[in-house]
């Protein structure tokens, strides 16, 4: 009898050991999580001038890159300016990068390379990187497979046993009955807690990923708008004429060419950003809905199974056992997927942070950043400087050769009775070689030129001749003010174009993502996979105790009904 009780206690306590050992080892699945996730392949680069091509999936990764490069089996909204891909040499990853990104985090076993350690660092274009990341979820995937196969076999054996060898139940152990009830309650509570963690985590994770995506989209839209503004200023510069003096013909031709490139870049960036951000939002919303449904279903099944088991409704319990058997296997798989996603996105954040510290080194990020060979940005920058300088020259020609000259009335249309103090010339912010220059004394800069010149405007007659002291007619002043405004606009966007060329905007964006968004992504993605694991294990053990407690309850009822009562009990009944 003692041996029987011990064996019963063993099968009651064994699942408890499984739960605690599994939860204790969960931290080891987190593959050296030192830094922050960024939603896997999704968030890689931002603020570029064009977008990089589509490459087996749909991910929003960059905004504002320099060029939109071609499609390659799928749809990624990534960054442009792709320069090179890292080599895959005879099945072994060989990095030609001067800097290996996230080298410590990515030092994992590679199942595609005989389980040798992967040493290539973060590189989303490298299959060995993805294989090593996927391997971090192997323990949970294996657990899902073992659970599905072993418990499925057990269900078949139990079904055959009850069909062919059914015998009446025997006596029961009060200790086993009490322990099974206590542990059933314990694992039911654990499953409820896991569902709460999962639901809370998915809400926070959805909010964090949505905020990150919104930030990326805002960066892309801001870049596209700035490019469109530059294009509009260049177009306006073509139309600027001061007293019938216009930009040289060759400059206007160059403006047409650079405008075509800018408009193409801005339109492509805005269109792809909108399309792919919608796809990613749909994906994020789908993930959220899946997790909400899963947590609700698991919570409902756990509660219903507990109630059915307590009230001895064994037929319904068996049906729930079969349904939950499949659901638990699926939950384990989903848990493994989120663990892989958590580690991949953490790698990405580490890679971004390391690149920010070494922006000039050749790394795997060269594949998706526009910081190398950004020809269009350089051409645009040079052209805006040239157009700004030429507009200033046009205005100064009119000031020097017309407004500040006291012509005789016979020199119409140059004569309009200009008089009074001489008009100050406009400061050209660039030398002939397009390098920055300081304003000379007596010049007015682009910031206050229109205010200063307004004091030199005269009143005119119906024929356009000044009837008061002044060097400018209202018409000429308006033309010069328009030229100054266009020049100021082009000059104002110079730093933006420089940031496109040297990738300072990417460094700033990466810094913002790393410091502001990555901590939340890492924290809440961990909540999700821990919640999934807790739900999976707790519900798995609850299934066992639905059956175990139901068996003990059935044996207890049978014992009370069929086992003869002691003689003392009969005597007590007669007396009563």
UniProtKB/TrEMBL annotation:
InterPro entries for the chain: DDB_G0292058-like
Residue intervals passing through the bilayer: 140-163, 175-199, 289-311, 318-341, 527-549
Cellular component GO terms held in the UniProt record: plasma membrane; plasmodesma
Signal sequence annotation: 1-28
Keywords from the named record: Membrane, Signal, Transmembrane, Transmembrane helix
Keyword Transmembrane helix recorded: yes
Entry protein name: Transmembrane protein
The organism of origin for this protein: Lithospermum erythrorhizon (Purple gromwell)
């Amino acid at each position: 009898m003692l041996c029987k009780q011990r064996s019963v206690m063993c099968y009651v306590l064994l699942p408890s050991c499984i739960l605690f050992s599994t939860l204790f080892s969960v931290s080891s699945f987190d593959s050296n999580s030192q830094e922050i996730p960024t939603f896997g392949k999704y968030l890689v680069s931002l603020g570029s001038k064009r977008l990089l091509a589509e490459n087996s999936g749909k991910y929003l990764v960059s905004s504002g890159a320099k060029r939109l490069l071609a499609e390659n089996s799928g749809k990624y909204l990534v960054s442009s300016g792709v320069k090179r891909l890292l080599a895959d040499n005879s099945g072994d990853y060989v990095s030609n990068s001067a800097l290996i990104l996230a080298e410590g985090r990515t030092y994992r076993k590679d199942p595609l390379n005989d389980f040798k350690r992967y040493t290539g660092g973060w590189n989303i274009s490298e299959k060995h990187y993805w294989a090593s990341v996927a391997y971090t979820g192997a323990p949970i995937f294996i657990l899902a497979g073992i659970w599905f196969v072993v418990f499925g076999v057990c269900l078949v054996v139990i079904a055959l046993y009850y069909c062919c060898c059914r015998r009446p139940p025997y006596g029961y152990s009060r200790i086993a009955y009490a322990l099974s009830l206590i542990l059933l309650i314990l694992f039911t509570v654990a499953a409820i807690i896991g569902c709460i963690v999962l639901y809370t985590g998915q809400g926070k994770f959805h909010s964090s990923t949505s905020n990150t995506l919104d930030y990326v989209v805002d960066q892309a839209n801001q870049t596209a708008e700035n490019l469109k503004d530059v294009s509009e200023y260049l177009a306006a510069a073509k139309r600027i004429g001061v007293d019938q003096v216009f930009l040289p013909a060759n400059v206007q031709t160059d403006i047409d060419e650079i405008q075509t490139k800018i408009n193409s870049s801005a339109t492509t960036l805005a269109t792809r950003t909108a399309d792919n951000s919608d796809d990613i939002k749909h994906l994020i919303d789908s993930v959220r809905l899946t997790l909400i449904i899963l947590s609700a279903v698991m919570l409902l099944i756990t509660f219903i199974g507990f109630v059915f088991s307590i009230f001895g409704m064994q037929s319904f319990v068996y049906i729930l056992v079969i349904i939950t058997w499949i659901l638990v296997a699926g939950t384990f798989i989903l848990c493994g997927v989120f663990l892989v996603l958590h580690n991949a996105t953490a790698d990405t954040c580490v890679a971004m942070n390391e690149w920010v510290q070494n922006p000039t080194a050749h790394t795997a990020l060269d594949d998706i950043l526009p910081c190398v060979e950004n020809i269009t940005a350089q051409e645009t920058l040079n052209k805006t400087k040239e157009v700004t300088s030429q507009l200033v020259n046009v205005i100064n020609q009119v000031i020097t050769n017309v407004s500040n000259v006291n012509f005789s009335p016979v020199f119409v249309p140059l004569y309009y009775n200009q008089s009074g103090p001489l008009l100050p010339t406009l400061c050209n912010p660039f030398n002939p070689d397009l390098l920055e220059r300081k304003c000379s004394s007596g010049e007015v800069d682009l910031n206050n030129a229109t205010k200063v010149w307004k004091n030199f405007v005269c009143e005119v007659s119906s024929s356009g001749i000044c009837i008061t002291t002044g060097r400018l007619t209202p018409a000429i002043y308006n033309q010069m003010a328009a030229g100054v405004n266009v020049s100021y606009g082009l000059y104002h966007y110079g730093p933006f174009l420089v940031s496109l060329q040297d990738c300072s905007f990417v460094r700033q964006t990466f810094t913002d993502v790393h410091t502001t968004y990555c901590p939340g992504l890492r924290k809440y993605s961990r909540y999700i996979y821990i919640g999934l694991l807790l739900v999976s294990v707790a519900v798995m053990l609850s299934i066992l105790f639905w059956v175990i407690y139901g068996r003990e309850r059935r044996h207890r009822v049978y014992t009370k009904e069929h086992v003869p009562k002691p003689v003392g009990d009969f005597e007590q009944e007669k007396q009563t």
